């Protein structure tokens, strides 16, 4: 993970910053000599929405997807859990989804695969150096796509690769991962790491947490919202982000029911009364 931090630093300091109008030349197709070479031995960080797309594509639960196809490396420098696509245990360490004709999950491929050869660098929430989000070009040495003659602007590439569908959820997730609170602490305590992991990455487990526990007895979630999040993974993920803002950062994104607040107040008052009687 230190290598990734180093790469981030190099990108910030040395890579040319591209805007949506910046041009580049690139084409990837089955005729290039490097076809499928990049779909092996690579760190692909999965976003929460990537996991929803892939687990639904494969027709499995998020828990099964996570245990079968991902790793979540621990690193003390990481402020929150991350999920990386697990490469196959073969000589090439190929992606589990690569086939002879290319990506077998192409229409649901992860955000990072869609973006390549572009990357996106985002400043932290408390960044006061006037850093702005920018695109950069990742020119992997094996990649022959840069020798092709197709011209793009960054904006055209983003449209062509269907990246807009990922943007809203990506922005909401960034609101969690780049939050000031996370920058100020050493790391989240284990129970909050678990909550982060469940709400962000293990959507089916999060659904059980909301619907099969006393959650809806304690929190005020209106009936329309309950109906929406019951069967819709994307709506549930948006709700999960609100829950993380509430449970990790103490923001008022979710309301506790008045009856729960009243009974908590009564419980505290009773404890204080007993304590004063003892003294
Ligand atoms: S998900 Fe598809 S595009 Fe991405 S590395 Fe795997 S095979 Fe390649
Ligand atoms: S290395 Fe580049 S050109 Fe070759 S398959 Fe991968 S993205 Fe396409």
Could you explain how this protein is built, in words?
The protein has about 280 residues and is mainly alpha-helical. It has two domains: about 1-165, no CATH class; about 190-260, no CATH class. The protein is built from 13 helices and ten strands. The protein has helices at about 1-15, 50-60, 60-70, 110-115, 155-160, 165-175, 180-185, 190-200, 205-210, 215-220, 225-230, 235-250, 260-279, and strands spanning about 25, 70, 85, 100, 100-105, 120, 135, 150-155, 220, 255. The strands form five sheets. The protein has a two-stranded antiparallel ribbon. Strands 2-3 form a two-stranded antiparallel sheet. Strands 4-5 form a two-stranded antiparallel sheet. Strand 4 (about 100) and strand 5 form a beta hairpin. The chain is elongated and about 80 Å long. The structure holds iron/sulfur cluster (2 copies). One iron/sulfur cluster binds next to loops.
Q: Report strand %.
A: 5-15%
| Cofactors, ions, other ligands | iron/sulfur cluster
Helical coverage, percent range:
40-55%
* Rg of Cα set: 22 Å
What is the rounded distance between the termini?
A: 54 Å
Number of strands: 10
Principal-axes shape call = elongated
Work out the helix count. Answer: 13
**Order of helices and strands, N to C?**
HEHHEEEEHEEEHHHHHHEHHEH
Strand order of the largest sheet: 1-8
What composes the largest sheet?
A: 2 strands, antiparallel
């Amino acid at each position: 993970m230190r290598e990734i931090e180093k790469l981030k630093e190099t990108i910030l300091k040395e890579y040319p910053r591209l805007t949506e109008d910046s041009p580049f030349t690139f084409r990837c197709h089955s005729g290039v000599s490097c076809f499928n070479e990049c779909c092996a031995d690579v760190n692909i960080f999965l976003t929460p929405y990537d996991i929803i797309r892939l687990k639904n594509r494969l027709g499995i639960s998020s828990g099964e997807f996570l245990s079968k196809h991902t790793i979540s490396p621990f690193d003390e420098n990481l402020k929150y859990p991350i999920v990386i696509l697990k490469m196959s245990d073969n000589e090439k360490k190929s992606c589990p989804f690569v086939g002879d004709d290319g990506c077998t999950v192409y229409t649901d491929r992860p955000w990072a695969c869609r973006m390549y050869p572009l990357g996106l660098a985002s400043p932290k929430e408390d960044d006061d150096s006037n850093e702005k989000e920018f695109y950069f070009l990742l020119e992997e040495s094996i990649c022959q796509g840069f020798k092709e003659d197709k011209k793009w602007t960054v904006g055209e590439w983003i449209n062509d690769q269907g990246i807009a569908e990922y943007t809203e959820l990506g922005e909401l997730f960034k609101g969690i991962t780049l939050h000031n609170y996370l920058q100020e602490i050493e790391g989240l305590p284990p129970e909050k790491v678990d909550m982060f992991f469940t709400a962000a990455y293990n959507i089916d487990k999060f659904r059980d947490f909301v619907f099969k526990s006393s959650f809806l007895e304690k929190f005020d979630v209106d009936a329309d919202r309950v109906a929406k999040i019951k069967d819709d993974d994307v709506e549930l993920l948006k709700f999960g982000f609100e829950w993380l803002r509430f449970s990790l950062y103490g923001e008022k994104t979710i309301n506790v029911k008045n009856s729960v607040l009243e009974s908590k107040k009564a419980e505290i008052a009773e404890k204080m009364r007993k304590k004063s009687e003892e003294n």
